[in-house]
Amino acid sequence: MFYVYMLASKPFGTPYVGMTSDLARRVWEHKNKLVPGFTKRCGVARLVWFETHDTVEAAIQREKRIKEWKRDWKVNLIERDNPRWIDLYQSILR
């Protein structure tokens, strides 16, 4: 299983798009500032959206497509499933 996900620093904050095969581990790394770059510098660690894919190729393609989207489109995708921008991290640990 592969995941495309979006993080934000706060509700309606700047969305960050990523892809991983281990969502819980990757979000934990973001939360503990182990991932260098934008997410570490800006404190972006709230998991606000994710979806699953069966192949790495599909996940990579989807991640690249979403990264090209306008901010409004990303916000709409988040709000469709998570209108209150709740951190979904605890829900993926079960």
What's the topology here?
Layout: E1 2-8, E2 16-20, H1 23-31, H2 38-42, E3 46-53, H3 56-68, H4 71-81, H5 89-92
Antiparallel strand pairs: 1-2, 1-3
Descriptive account of the structure:
It contains 5 helices and 3 strands. It is an alpha+beta fold and 94 residues long. It has a single domain (2-92), classed as GIY-YIG endonuclease (3-Layer(aba) Sandwich), CATH 3.40.1440.10. A 3-stranded antiparallel beta sheet has the order 2-1-3, with helices on both faces. A hairpin with a 7-residue loop joins strand 1 and strand 2 (16-20). The protein is globular and about 30 Å long. The chain starts with a strand and ends with a helix. The mean pLDDT is 95.
